[in-house]
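re: ur question from earlier - yeah i can do the single chain one, its not a big deal. heres the input i used so u can compare w yours
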Amino acid sequence: MITPIIQFGTSRFLQAHVDLFVSDARAAGQDAGPITVVQTTTDKGREGRLAAFDGRPIPIVVRGLENGLPVERTEYTRSIVRGLSTSADWPEVERIFVEEARYVISNTGDSGYSNGKEVVGDGVPDAFPVKLTRLLLARWRRTRVPLTLLPCELVTFASRRT
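and the output i got, formated as tokens:
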């Protein structure tokens, strides 16, 4: 199964935006997706979400205004074909990243950036920037095929005064 989009982050934000948009594009006949979702942390609370990423439609509740009128409806994203974990599935995550991915989407949150002293080594990295660096290096070494990286993180950094 070829998955040209690899998504780091299991959040509902990505499901309701990126994944639903890709699902709509696929339904319209566009060459988009499918998506492999990757959990980047060892948070046990996220493991239940991973199990749901098995190709079944995921319901998304859409609320807001449409043509000036209130709407509330359930749509389904059908773009996600599988869920993996960097801690349990690193070799497969690396294989997909190196051999299949054309697009990388991420929304890992502040916790993924917390370990500022980690360096790229042989084991599975903890911090998301180190994971990404290692994956990019593996891709460069094996295929050198370019890809598009679309970060969706909203990370707050303290400003420094000099």
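The chain has four helices and seven strands. not sure if urs matches, ping me
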